Amino acid sequence: MQKLSKNLKVWLYASFILAGLAAILLTVALFTDYDSSSGYFKTSIIYSIFKGMCIVVCGLAVVTVLTTPKGALNGDSPLSAPIVFPSAFLALVFFCGGMILLGALLGLSIVCDTFTGVATADPALLGVGALFSFGSVVYFILNCFPKDGKLSERHALFGFSVPIAAAIYLSISYFDLSVSINAPIKLMTQLALIFSMLWMLYELRVPLKKPMPRLYFAFGILALFFSGTASLPYLIGGAANLIKSTVFPTYYLYVFVSLAMFCYIAVRLTVYVLARDIFERIADQTPIEIFAEEESEDPDAAEDPSVEN
Q1: By C-alpha distance, which of 128, 120, 140 is closest to 102?
Q2: What angle do CA 53, 203, 142 make, to 5 degrees?
Q3: Is 72 exposed, middle or buried (0-12, 13-18, 19+ CB in 10 A)?
Q4: Which of 8, 68, 87, 109 has the least CB density, counted as fewest CB within 10 Å?
Q5: Global pTM?
Q6: Residues 6+ positions from 93 with CB-CB distance below 8 Å
Q7: Distance, CA of 79 to CA of 62 (rounded, Å)
Q8: Residue 44 — φ and ψ, nearest 5°?
Q9: Spans of the chain below 70 pLDDT
Q10: What are phi and psi of 150, to 5 degrees?
Q11: DSSP bridge partners of 41
Q12: Cα separations (Å) of 277 from 67, 196, 221, 282, 302?
C-alpha cells in the first residue's frame, strides 16, 4: 500500500515539475520566437521541446492508469481549508464570465467593443453560457462550506454547471474567427478547457457515490498541466504586450478560467494524495504497534507506582 502511495506522490510532483518547466519554456518562447502579427511561433527548439513535454505528460497520465491496480484507490477526496481560496477564485471568474456573456447577449457596447470574440457568438450560446456560468458560481460558493468535509449529492448537481459552462466557452472560442483556428493560444486554452471539463466530471462522481479514482487522478494530471501552461505564460505575455489586440482582452476570459482551474485542481490532487498517504500509514500499522505508541505517549502510566513492572 505504501508503494502505491509513494507512486502517487511521485506522479503528482512530476506533473507539477513538468507544468512549471513547460510554463517557463512557453514564456521564453513568447518573448523570443512569437510573431504577434500572425499569432504563431516561429520554428524554434524551445517550442519543439514544449510540444515534446506535452507528449510526456500525456504518457505519464496513461502510466498512472496502467500501473495502478483496479480497486487499489478509494474514491474519497476530502475537502480541506485550502480549498476555500481556489473555490472563491473560481466563483469570481465564472461570475465575471457570466456577466461578460450576459452583457454580449444584451448588446452592451462596453462588452461588445472590449470582448469582440465573445460578442460575435451565437445568442443561444451566450444565453446558455451565462446561465451555467452563474450555476458554476453557486457550486463553488457552496464548495467553501462543505458539510462534514464532503460534498452532498444536491451540491453535485450544481457542479454539472461547470463542465457545461466550460463546453460553452470552448464553443465560443472555436467559432471566434478573430483568431486562427490552429493558433497556439487557441489550442492551449481549448486543451485546458477540455481536460478541466473531463476532470470535473470525475470529480462530481465522488459525491454521487460512483467514483473512478484512477481516471480522476490521470485526468487531474492532464488538466493541471494544460491549465497551468495555458494561463501563466499568456498572462505574462499579455502584460508585456506581446500578443496582438485581437486576442486580448477576449482571451483573458479563457486564460483566467484556466488559471483558476489550475489552482483548484492542484489543491484537490495534493489533498487527495497526502490524505491517502496518512490513511495508508495508519492502516499499515498493526494493532500491537498502535497500542505500543499509545503506551509510550502516556506519561501518567509510566509514573504511576501502582503499575507493576
Answers
A1: 128
A2: 125
A3: exposed
A4: 109
A5: 0.85
A6: 256, 257, 259, 260
A7: 26
A8: -150, 155
A9: 1-2, 74-82, 147-151, 245-247, 277-309
A10: -135, 165
A11: 34
A12: 18, 25, 18, 9, 32
